Amino acid sequence: MASPQQLSSFLESVERRAFKQAIFAVHDEEAALDIVQDAMLKLAEKYGDRPDEEFPMLFQRILQNTIRDYYRRSKVRSMWTTLLSAFSSDDDEDSDPLETLAADEDDNGLRTPEATLLQSQTLEVIEEEIKKLPARQREAFLMRYWEDMDVAETAAAMGCSEGSVKTHCSRATHALAAALSARGIKL
Questions:
Q1: Which of these, 181, 187, 24, lies nearest to 118 by C-alpha position?
Q2: Element (H, E) at 69
Q3: For residue 169, how many other CB atoms are within 10 A of its CB?
Q4: Are 168 and 141 in contact (CB under 8 A)?
Q5: What is the pTM of this model?
Q6: DSSP letter assigned to residue 12
Q7: Tens digits of per-residue pLDDT, 159-180?
Q8: CA pair distance 129, 172, nearest whole angstrom
């Protein structure tokens, strides 16, 4: 059984990565914040009494389901908005800016300003390319390489087979490598 302090520490440790994952999925900062908050509340309310080693997988599954719920609600809302807009003459479209956060850096030594700038630009390009991946590839890639989950944990969180996770990750990795190579970036 996890203590409230362990739950709080876990949520604090994953909030930034979860937000980034949500913003990659929904491309809307406010919606991403809501999704992460909802996922954290669901974990605390329904699974807060579980052992703390179960939190990462449970949270990933809750986060992915919350993102899917967002898309379901958006689809229904969009359908009704489209139907109702036929009766009004006002076409008020809101812009949907995509804002990203700067990645955390763990500097172990001194870096030149040029190296820091180059790394920052490379991370921006990688984030842009991750956003372009198909949803399942992006989900598998982020869980495996960003959240550092193993294949079995990723498969359980995504609700698919381990082979599917490997396929999604392989395709995502090849797509990212090709996109970066096309932009002249060598990693």
A1: 187
A2: helix 55-85
A3: 19
A4: yes
A5: 0.53
A6: H
A7: 999 999 999 999 998 888 888 8
A8: 10
